[in-house]
Specification:
α9 runs parallel beside α10 (about 230-240). The strands form 2 sheets. A 7-stranded parallel sheet has the order 10-9-8-7-11-12-13, sandwiched between helices. β11 (about 270-275), α12 and β12 (about 290-295) form a beta-alpha-beta unit. About 50% of the residues lie in helices and about 15% in strands. With about 375 residues, it is of the alpha/beta class.
Length: about 375
Amino acid sequence: MRIFLLAGEPSGDRLGAALMMKLKQLLPEIKFEGVGGHAMASEGLISQFPMEELSLMGLTEILPKYFRLRRRIHETVSAIISMNADLLVTIDSPDFSLRVAKRLKSQSNIPIIHYVAPTIWAWRPKRAKKMVKVIDHVLALFPFEPPYLEAAGMQCDYVGHPIISEPVPNADDAAKFRTRNNLGDAPIILVLPGSRSKEVSRLLKPFGDALQIFLKDHPQFRVVIPTVSAVEDFIKSRCANWPGSPIILATGDDSIQLTSDNKRGAFAAANIALAASGTVSLELAASKTPMVIGYKFSWITWQIIKRMARINTATLVNILSDSRSIPECFGSECSGEKISRKLNEIWSNPNAQIDIMDLAIARLKADCETPSLRAAQVIVAYLGERE
């Protein structure tokens, strides 16, 4: 059995690695090729090219690199066909993944499963019409997604979000983290500006401005910034003079190592968090860390999103809990002054979000096995039906 896996960013890399592990348990003779990062490499994948080339978001990020991305599309399709793959599994990164899928379908009958349903329920609903022509099956992370995909004519299985199978941060994790980093009893604000270089470059300025304002009134706070290798150096250079004596959890020799235990400890120890929009809101909810969510696109991308949006929140905790309790600062609202005001509000009442976070996580856990195992089982069953 030969499977080509395509991931384009760190979250997809983690999903891909977990999926590879479970597929190897179910199909010991399986062979993998593809594109991925460090996590997938630890499971034996040799990436066709650096995954970081695909970690793009928004029109103004994609357009300048269009020709290089097009070349990578051709290379990826050629590699899939040369491998004589039994299946292509594309993991998130829909802009790149769907272009690869379209080209592959025009040249072969290799089936394609897309892991992580695109947010057609939030914006760009017409993407479903494009997907149905090239995607054979979808693996969804959220329980409300299958009806949207099935209505568009696609087969879809809800396999669950990986957050539900990860260890829940606890008081012991928090205590060890504080001791390890000499934090004592100081309150901690966790700052999570994302993993893509462009989003980080856009968010560090308003996030830093917000901290300058917030920490003037709360100088006792310490700042902790978990990051990834792709943006580690940039964050170090931009955050060195931030208030709160920032502790950067990263992968380099000069940083405190970002291990699973250290990251879990940071989330458990944090009193509040300021984070980019995305899956991280679920990680914060699992650790019961009150949060403010911020995001900033280019002006052009933001105007398009505002006109195409189908919902009035983008935070997954809000969506899953049918609430708007997690404050958001998007677009023009993503400024130091407005973010700091929201941080003050949640610090004045840090327990206000607890019930909503618990509800969101509970709804993810309902009727779901270990997500990576469930995803692997669906893939094995799908391939079995085609034999």
